[in-house]
Design brief:
The complex is a heterodimer of chains A (about 120) and B (about 300). Chain A is built from three helices and no strands. Chain A has about 120 residues and is mainly α. The radius of gyration of chain B is 21 Å and the shape is globular.
């Protein structure tokens, strides 16, 4: 009896711990995504885009649409858009930075996390 | 009878070749008219045409910062033509233009005799001929840029050629450009080979390149009048009228058209092409042809 209680308690604690580290790493991913977004040598996405709930991006350009409500899209839609935008819009000006290996799969995942976290529909 | 036939044959050959000669630039003229029209329409009233040409640009920003309508000649000012904040900033800068020192240097170089006693005027009877370049040389079947002409003159007179892109070559061209201000660009397409060089340049203009897969067209036609980061993008029309261009960025450098083109190619993530390569010369031929009839105002200052 005591044993089961203890086991359950341990299980709960470890679950909590896992979700804490999960939340932590998600936060890190969002942070990393923002860095890829604004860094010239990485994604340089701000060259063309502003972001709905992140108005403090410095010197953002206005060639692409303001990125908004992306939490309403499936993750893989956004991933693919960033990985190779020519697939959906053949003559788009948006560069295929994943396909051309300028940024990695992990960095695109980070961008997706950042965009979904900061462009939530209000 | 036979005589008559021969006569007809000869006549038809002559008229055929006349027709042909007149049409070397037919395609280019068609392209140029469409090119000019696009920009005149786009910048006639950007606020009204917001949805068509500027869907992602903030309308309030446009109302505050755009200058319009633009006339044909207005396009000589590049990004300063339409973007008021840069225009005002550069008007001030140009009260004492940094390039004037470079033009003075250019004048000294122009008049200083070579070791053989001759000067540049032995090759260029007139100084103000910037508007004739680039031209197509029907003997060598190559596009010749003004930089090449300057260096050819040096070599012909026993001097070492200048390094292309910036420095003395840009100074000499700046002096020539100053003397050419107000003259109209008139690039000609005198032969079939010239038409081919033009077509090659055109292809290079529309080609997506580099790991960013970007074309000149995407940045300087479709995105002209928009901002890439904080950089207001110049319309391709008129882009070659202010060369060589004094760029304030990075401490201030006077750059030739060749250097400017190479810089933009590199910006797409492609390998930087060699100055005076066939690609860059043909590209400058196409690009300059598009601005035919526009008055020169070089050198000028840009961000």
């Amino acid at each position: 009896m005591i044993n089961t209680k203890k086991i359950v308690a341990v299980a709960i604690i470890s679950m909590l711990g896992a979700s804490v580290t999960y939340a932590q790493s998600q936060q890190d991913l969002v942070k990393e995504g923002r860095k890829v977004f604004v860094t010239k040598k990485l994604g340089n996405c701000l060259a063309c885009h502003t972001v709905q709930n992140d108005p403090n991006i410095p010197q953002a350009g206005n060639i692409g649409p303001k990125l908004s409500n992306l939490d309403t899209y499936p993750k893989d839609y956004i991933f693919n858009k960033i990985w190779d935008p020519n697939k959906t819009v053949p003559n788009t000006i948006m560069p295929p930075q994943g396909r051309s290996h300028k940024i990695s799969k992990h960095q695109v995942d980070a961008l997706v996390a950042y965009l979904q976290a900061t462009t939530k529909a209000k | 009878m036979l005589k008559k036939l021969i006569k007809i044959a000869i006549l038809s050959m002559i008229s055929g070749s006349i027709l042909f000669a007149a049409s070397y630039n037919a395609q280019a003229e068609k392209d140029r008219k469409a090119f000019v029209n696009y920009f005149l329409k786009k910048f006639q009233n950007p606020v009204k045409n917001h949805a068509k040409y500027f869907p992602n640009v903030n309308l309030d920003e446009m109302k505050k910062t755009y200058r319009y309508p633009l006339s044909f000649q207005d396009f000589q000012d590049g990004s300063l033509a339409w973007y008021k904040p840069s225009r005002e900033q550069f008007k001030e800068l140009n009260e004492f233009p940094a390039y004037s020192l470079e033009v003075d240097d250019g004048e000294v170089l122009w008049n200083k005799p070579f070791a053989n006693g001759k000067t540049y005027s032995s090759c260029f009877p007139e100084t103000g001929v910037r508007n004739d370049y680039p031209y197509f040389d029907t003997k060598t079947n190559e596009v010749v840029t003004i930089g090449q002409a300057v260096n050819a003159c040096r070599v012909k007179n026993g001097e070492k050629p200048y390094k292309y892109g910036k420095g003395n070559i840009a100074k000499v061209i700046a002096y020539m450009a100053m003397k050419s201000r107000g003259k109209k660009i008139h690039v000609t397409i005198p032969s079939m080979a010239a038409a081919q060089a033009y077509e090659h340049g055109k292809k290079e203009f529309y080609k997506q390149r580099g790991y960013l897969s970007l074309s000149c067209n995407e940045c300087h036609v479709v995105s002209s009048g928009k901002r890439l980061r904080a950089e207001s993008l110049s319309p391709a029309l008129g882009q070659t009228t202010e060369m060589p261009v004094y760029r304030v960025k990075g401490g201030g450098t006077l750059l030739t058209l060749q250097a400017r083109l190479a810089g933009c190619v590199k910006g797409t993530g492609a390998e930087k092409p060699k100055l005076q390569s066939k690609t860059l010369r043909d590209l400058s031929y196409f690009l300059t042809y598009m601005s035919n009839g526009m008055k020169l105002y070089g050198p000028d200052t840009r961000k």
